[in-house]
Amino acid sequence: MDWLMSNLYVFVLATFLGFEVIRRVSPLLHTPLMSLTNAISAISLVGSLVILGEQRSALSTALGAIAVTASTINVVSGFLITDRMLKMFKKRNPKE
């Protein structure tokens, strides 16, 4: 039970710290920041695939499947948002 409380404490602290760091980023740096968070999400996808593949218990398999689904959605939507943001910076040619 002690390890659960310490892990929960680290999770909550990381959540608040991450929120504060991202909140203070200027709008010009959002695209590189999104690319970095996509890379972090990809790392979490690999970790969740490892947990799913171990199949130690039914609970860990179910949680691994949920983590794989959530990580995949996060990675795909992050790339879609980054692509949309990059399209906003492209110069448009006026129709002749």
Automatic annotation (TrEMBL):
Instruction: Determine if Ribonucleoprotein is one of this entry's keywords.
Output: no
- Biological process (GO) annotations? NADPH regeneration
Species lineage, top-down?
Bacteria, Pseudomonadati, Acidobacteriota, Blastocatellia, Blastocatellales
Entry membrane topology: Multi-pass membrane protein
Entry function = The transhydrogenation between NADH and NADP is coupled to respiration and ATP hydrolysis and functions as a proton pump across the membrane.
**Its GO CC terms?**
plasma membrane
Q: What is this protein called?
A: proton-translocating NAD(P)(+) transhydrogenase
Indicate the secretion signal residues: none
An annotated Gene Ontology molecular function: NADP binding
**Which EC numbers does the record give?**
7.1.1.1
Location(s) in or outside the cell: Cell inner membrane
Annotated keywords: Cell inner membrane, Cell membrane, Membrane, NAD, NADP, Oxidoreductase, Translocase, Transmembrane, Transmembrane helix
Q: Which organism is it from?
A: Pyrinomonas methylaliphatogenes
NAD(P) transhydrogenase alpha subunit C-terminal domain: residues covered: 7-91
Catalyzed reactions: NAD(+) + NADPH + H(+)(in) = NADH + NADP(+) + H(+)(out)
- Which chain regions cross the lipid bilayer? 6-22, 34-52, 58-82
One protein family per Pfam: PNTB_4TM
